[in-house]
Amino acid sequence: MPAIPAPHRVGSADVIHHDGYDETIVSPFVPAIRTVSGARLVFVSGVTGAPVYHDHPHRREVFDTIPADIAGQVANAFAHLDLALAAAGARRTDVVNLVRFFTDVDADQDTVNRVQSEWFGGHIPTSTSVEVTRLATDPRLRLEIQAIAAVGAGE
């Protein structure tokens, strides 16, 4: 059995592995991340392929330009996550946790995992994926991503 690696620092957090870790397994998440003392936490509301700012109650026509395919929706969602992180003074590597809500995990998870891996460029946060009946914003949406980032310790 491979040795458990010591925690390694990524931004304002330590990536933690435990018994059973195998570096040859390709995974879109790590088991645990511990923030460093002094890090500020940034909580990002769920982002989707839809415009972040939209009317409530929802107006259906606002969502008519949302891409129907998951590749387009996940690209928009990560672009929206970039905007929120930047506004909060955070970077992609500061993200310590994602919660991903899918309306069809079987159809969409592989595409989302690929885009997420490219977007993070080697950084891997903790993550939970959940399948839901539908998302609240519009029934055409297939994915929502919520994030937590740890920013600024030791900087």
How is this structure best described in words?
With 155 residues, the chain is α+β, with helices and mostly antiparallel strands. It has one domain (8-151): 60s Ribosomal Protein L30, Chain: A (2-Layer Sandwich). The protein has 2 helices and 7 strands, in the order ββββαβαββ. The protein has helices spanning 70-87, 105-120, and strands at residues 8-10, 13-16, 32-35, 40-47, 95-102, 126-131, 143-151. α2 (105-120) links the parallel β5 (95-102) and β6. The mean pLDDT is 87.
What's a quick, concise take on this entry?
The protein has 155 residues and is an alpha+beta fold.
Give a quick set of tags describing it.
155 residues, alpha+beta, 60s Ribosomal Protein L30, Chain: A, 4-stranded mixed beta sheet, 3-stranded antiparallel beta sheet, globular
